[in-house]
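I am going through a labmate's work and have reached the protein record below. What it holds is a sequence and that sequence's fold in token form. Please read both lines and tell me whether the tokens look consistent with the sequence. Do not assume that whoever made the record got everything right. Thanks in advance; the entry in question is below.
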Amino acid sequence: ELATTTVEFRDVTEEAEHLTGVYKGVRAESNNWTKMTVSQMRKQREADERCRERHLALRTAANKREELGMLLSESESRAADADKFRAHAKNTIDSAMKATHAPSDLSYELQAEKVKQITLDNKKRQLRIRKSYQETKKE
């Protein structure tokens, strides 16, 4: 009876050791899967953050491009107004010179020079705005 009990005890001990080994293996596999899951979640968070940053940068660039477009159209309308003013000023000066017997070349030249300077400044400003608009468009 003692021998049978000893044999049964040995069998139960071997089975317990076997089950303990299986449990440890399952536990290790579970830990591996947990680590993999945590790693994948971290990578996904990093990818989401990069995506958010890129989206914000693109939205900022689009807003800047839109602002520059509005500034460009405003500048073009001002340039058109300046051209109209220049033509009107030239007509007015020509009419005034024709109306007087002794026209003053100095005043006409001064006025013409001022109009040319305003026109040149407007063209430079418009060119600068176009360049910056094109640069943001390239980005």
User: Anything to note?
Assistant: The chain has a mean pLDDT of 86. Helices lie at 2-99, 105-138.
